[in-house]
């Protein structure tokens, strides 16, 4: 607790100090509660933004399953593919993917990556 002994005219003697009351001024209380309220608002805003980001991102990634994309570069294991006009990091478990190959999204990975397989010329996998 904050003591304002000089305002009360109390000395620092033990006897006199016990007779003085420690108090918080209205200005101190106002600053304290303002900081508490602002901190709570910031935390709520951050939580709200995190929830929006999590729900929209996962929903968007799940919608990618089964979509067709085009390889933007030749790669063996990891590279980039274009899906619905967006560039995605892709991982292929088998085969070499060449630039321009059509690929099919089979899964979603961590972050902004998708799992793909090369689509054959007859439309199958």
Can you give a write-up of this model?
The protein is of the alpha+beta class. Helix content is 38%, strand content 24%. The protein contains 3 helices and 5 strands, in the order αααβββββ. It has helices spanning 5-8, 14-19, 26-62; strands spanning 68-71, 78-83, 86-92, 102-108, 113-118. It has a 5-stranded mixed barrel with strand order 1-2-3-5-4. The longest helix has 37 residues, at 26-62. It is rod-shaped. The model is unreliable at 4-9 (pLDDT under 50).
**Count of extended strands:** 5
Shape: rod-shaped
Largest sheet: 5 strands, mixed, barrel
Distance between the termini: 72 Å
Poorly predicted ranges? 4-9
Query: Helix segment count?
Result: 3
Give the strand content.
15-25%
Q: State the share of residues found in helices, binned by percent.
A: 25-40%
Kindly name the structural category.
alpha+beta
Average pLDDT for all residues: 80
User: From the alpha-carbon coordinates, what is the Rg to the nearest angstrom?
Assistant: 31 Å
Order of helices and strands: HHHEEEEE
What topology, given as strand order, has the largest sheet? 1-2-3-5-4
Summary tags:
single chain; 125 residues; alpha+beta; five-stranded mixed barrel; 3 helices; rod-shaped
Describe the secondary structure blueprint for this structure.
Blueprint: H1 5-8, H2 14-19, H3 26-62, E1 68-71, E2 78-83, E3 86-92, E4 102-108, E5 113-118
Parallel strand pairs: 3-5
Antiparallel strand pairs: 1-2, 1-4, 2-3, 4-5
């Amino acid at each position: 607790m904050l003591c304002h002994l000089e305002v009360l005219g109390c000395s620092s003697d033990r006897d006199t100090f016990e007779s003085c009351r420690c108090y918080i001024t209205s200005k101190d209380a106002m600053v304290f509660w303002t900081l508490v309220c602002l901190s709570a608002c910031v935390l709520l805003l951050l939580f709200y933004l995190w929830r929006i980001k999590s729900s929209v991102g996962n929903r968007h990634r799940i919608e990618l399953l089964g979509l067709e994309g085009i390889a933007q570069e030749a790669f063996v294991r990891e590279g980039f593919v274009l899906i619905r006009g967006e560039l995605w990091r892709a991982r292929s478990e088998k085969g070499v993917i060449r630039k321009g190959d059509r690929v099919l999204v089979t899964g979603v990975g961590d972050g902004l990556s998708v799992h793909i397989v090369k689509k054959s010329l007859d439309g199958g996998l």
